[in-house]
Design a protein that fits this description.
Structural class: alpha/beta
Helix content: 25-40%
Largest sheet: 8 strands, parallel
Number of helices: 13
Strand order of the largest sheet: 9-8-7-6-5-2-1-10
Number of strands: 16
Bound molecules: beta-D-galactopyranose
């Protein structure tokens, strides 16, 4: 326990981020983003509706506070170069006020390039002006997506990847400084798909979170491929600066209950930002119970901020563990096979999870049941693509 406290204090003191930046995202940001469901069709009315439903569905009270507008809100610039929203978003300030009136925060999206990924106006050459505008409108969060800036990098430094990467870092730092200059706290979300091992330099350019992978799609294979690619990244995350394996697809596509449970379990183990991406008008009780499970969210939001990592990789199961502030450990067992497993002949890897005696008291976070004392040889029956998530104590 004492060691954990020291680790927490050391993480705060030695972080490359300012104290203010650490406070801003002391735990992984939680909210909702328009892209995974609405993509280019999103409108002002959709954002207002999402804000209404995030409150009435209990999502806000579970911790989801950011309502983030993704790409396609951007209009043309005015005569002075100021960015304007397009006809889908008639009044950004009024929209931000509306979202704030619900006890929520609001996020916006841009690119260091001259065009966003969907071909709308980016911030290239207008960084300070844009940050100022976002602050005046009342935004609390910026997702900054590399997009067409890759063309600038290639054009200026053909065949010189190191120089290209340097340019990319500078571009992210430029917007970081522009945000600071506004004086308005804004969570800064880097989106450049994990290029150039962003986890090694993301905090230095003010990143509170950085995408560590390419885009997620709404299916189990995409989600699990991303999840497993995060092994080894735990040392780069901590209070104020998080690896971002992309927004949640819980409720999108054809993922079934067990697959959604695996998705949410893994994101909580990874101390990942929990940015839902589903259509709230179609949210049923099953989805709601997965997205708002208090005990699972508490793991994601654990104050120690130590990301979980892999302790076992097999053909049938993956086992990941995550140390928690109160001295307990989260343990997740994923059935990555195409059949139900009874874990025959497999161990729980309790020693590797920090229990040298090979036993631990366990609570099942998805069923909400205390399981008593577990032995390393105890087994779980886990459905195809499902997961078990435990909180272990001595
Ligand atoms: C992608 C990004 C997505 C979404 C999209 C918008 O590059 O990874 O999350 O923001 O652009 O065009």
């Amino acid at each position: 326990m004492r060691r954990r406290l020291c680790a927490l204090v050391a993480a705060l003191v030695f972080s490359p981020l300012s104290f203010a930046a650490q406070q801003l995202a002391a735990t992984p940001p939680m909210g909702w983003n328009s892209w995974n469901w609405f993509a280019g069709k999103v409108t002002d009315a959709d954002i207002r509706k999402a804000a209404d439903l995030i409150v009435s569905s209990g999502m806000r009270d579970a911790g989801y506070v950011y309502v983030n507008i993704d790409d396609t809100w951007e209009g043309k610039r005015d005569a002075n170069g100021g960015i304007r929203s397009n006809e889908k978003f008639p009044d950004m300030k009024a929209l931000a006020d509306y979202v704030h009136s619900k006890g929520l925060k609001i996020g916006i999206y841009s690119s260091p390039g001259s065009k966003t990924c969907a071909g709308y106006e980016g911030s290239f050459g207008h960084e300070e002006q844009d940050a100022k505008t976002y602050a005046e409108w009342g935004f609390d969060y910026l997702k900054y997506d590399l997009c067409s800036f890759r063309d600038n990098m290639r054009q200026e430094h053909p065949n010189d990847p190191a120089a290209q990467n340097h340019m990319m870092r500078d571009a992210y730092e430029k917007m970081h400084q522009a945000i600071l200059k506004t004086g308005r706290p804004m969570v800064y979300s880097l989106c450049q798909y994990g290029y150039d091992q962003v986890w090694q330099w993301g905090p230095e350019v003010g990143g509170n979170l950085w995408r560590s992978t390419e885009d997620i799609s709404a299916n189990y294979n995409s989600m699990m491929l991303i999840a497993l690619s995060q092994a080894g990244l735990s040392k780069y995350a901590g209070p104020g600066h998080w690896n971002d394996p992309d927004m949640l697809e819980v409720g999108n596509g054809k993922m079934n209950h067990d697959e959604n449970v695996s998705h949410m379990t893994m994101w909580a183990m990874l101390a990942a930002p929990l940015i839902a991406g589903n259509n709230f008008t179609e949210m049923n009780d099953d989805l709601r119970s997965i997205l708002t499970n208090k005990e699972v969210i508490a793991i994601d939001q654990d104050k120690l901020g130590k990301q979980g990592d892999r302790i076992h990789s097999g053909d049938e199961t993956e086992i990941w563990s995550r140390p928690l502030a109160d001295g307990s450990v989260a343990l997740a067992i994923f059935n990555i096979s195409e059949d139900r497993t009874t874990m025959r002949g497999q161990r729980l890897h309790l020693k590797e999870a920090g229990f040298p005696s090979g036993t631990a008291r366990a609570r099942d976070l998805w069923t909400g049941k205390d399981l008593g004392t577990l032995k390393d040889t105890d087994a779980f029956t886990i459905p195809r693509h499902g997961a078990v998530m435990l909180k272990l104590t001595k």
